[in-house]
């Protein structure tokens, strides 16, 4: 791979990432119950957002029901259900690879791809054999015959020259290069984001929580990287890692079960309507738990969200309007 100038992170973002990573390291090693909780939460969140970036229309609650309960959701195709369950299985494999900490190989990538596209594509688990084009992109992926050698070079770069970069910058470059090669007939984005998170988690960071509603920003950043400018992509991924770190920190400081309140009971103390709170939970911007079909969260979680909005770390979004 050609040498790439080091991308630049926004200095304020870099400081926040360092602060949150330092705080998280103070909690390590994480207790087993927190590790289990994080796995369950991130398996759903990352599936919801990564499949959503590719056009899946299941909402967060539906994604959770499909993954955890095996429930069929009316109005959604079998393909959308399989995309959710497949990605969840691939994320579970990803976490096992993080724990094993062995060098990434072609076979690991094939195994992840097989899980992502199981029952969805006949070429699951193998390099593409034909031509592909990218919608709304000027970049033309290489000929299929070049894919094996390009991927071998990509894997070699990860073990050598890539180590000169900060983990988040290395992740951004590696992610773009993988997507640019476009080694599979389908599933490149989902597998690419899983591999990005494998690199980040092995370096002690949280996974990058790239939001489905920021899809266009993410695609534009990839397009800028096509032209050799990685700054935008590094910052998009940096902010996604910051969101992931906050999920970890929230789990480490989670309130006891009796502090979880119904959304209606949180309207007065938080100044937000139950509809707004429910929307924030479904969008993955506010942690919550569902019991008996109703959402619960904590005052501390809402205050943390509001503080993040004030600092510019979290998007306020557009709350639903009462009719």
UniProtKB/TrEMBL annotation:
What is the protein's given name? Fido domain-containing protein
Domain of life from the UniProt record: Bacteria
The residues responsible for catalysis, as annotated, are 182
In Gene Ontology terms, what is one molecular function of this protein?
Answer: ATP binding
PANTHER family (UniProt xref): FIDO DOMAIN-CONTAINING PROTEIN, FIDO DOMAIN-CONTAINING PROTEIN DDB_G0283145
InterPro entries xrefs: Fido, Fido-like_dom_sf, Fido_containing
Residues of the site described as Important for autoinhibition of adenylyltransferase activity: 54
The record's keywords, sorted A to Z, are: ATP-binding, Nucleotide-binding
The Fido domain covers: 104-239
The species this protein was found in: Kouleothrix aurantiaca
Q: Where does ATP bind?
A: 186-193
């Amino acid at each position: 791979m050609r040498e790439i100038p080091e991308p630049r992170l926004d200095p304020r973002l870099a400081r926040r990432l360092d602060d949150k990573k330092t705080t998280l390291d103070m909690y390590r090693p994480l207790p087993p119950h927190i590790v289990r909780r994080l796995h369950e939460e991130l398996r759903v969140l990352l599936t919801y957002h990564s499949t959503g970036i590719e056009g899946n229309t299941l909402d967060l609650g539906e994604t959770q029901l499909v993954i955890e309960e095996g429930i069929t959701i009316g109005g959604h195709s079998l393909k959308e259900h399989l995309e959710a369950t497949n990605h969840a299985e691939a994320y579970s494999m990803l976490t096992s690879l993080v724990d094993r900490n062995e060098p990434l190989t072609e076979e690991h990538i094939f195994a992840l791809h097989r899980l992502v596209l199981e029952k969805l594509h006949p070429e699951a688990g193998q390099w593409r054999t034909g031509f592909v084009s990218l919608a709304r992109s000027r970049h033309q992926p290489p000929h299929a015959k070049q894919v094996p050698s390009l991927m071998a070079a990509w894997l070699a770069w990860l073990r050598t020259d890539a180590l000169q970069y900060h983990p988040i910058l290395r992740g951004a470059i590696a992610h773009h290069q993988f997507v640019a090669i476009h080694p599979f007939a389908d599933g490149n984005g989902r597998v690419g984001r899983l591999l990005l998170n494998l690199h980040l988690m092995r370096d002690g960071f949280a996974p990058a929580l790239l939001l489905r509603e920021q899809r266009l920003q993410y695609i534009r950043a990839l397009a800028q990287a096509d032209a050799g400018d990685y700054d935008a992509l590094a910052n998009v991924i940096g902010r996604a890692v910051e969101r992931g770190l906050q999920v970890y920190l929230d789990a480490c400081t989670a309130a006891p079960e009796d502090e979880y309140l119904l959304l209606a009971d949180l309207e007065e103390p938080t100044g937000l309507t139950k509809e707004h709170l429910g929307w924030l939970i479904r969008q993955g911007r506010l942690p919550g738990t569902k019991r008996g079909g109703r959402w619960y969260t904590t005052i501390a979680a809402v205050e943390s969200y509001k503080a993040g909005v004030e600092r510019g770390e979290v998007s306020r979004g557009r709350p639903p309007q009462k009719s």
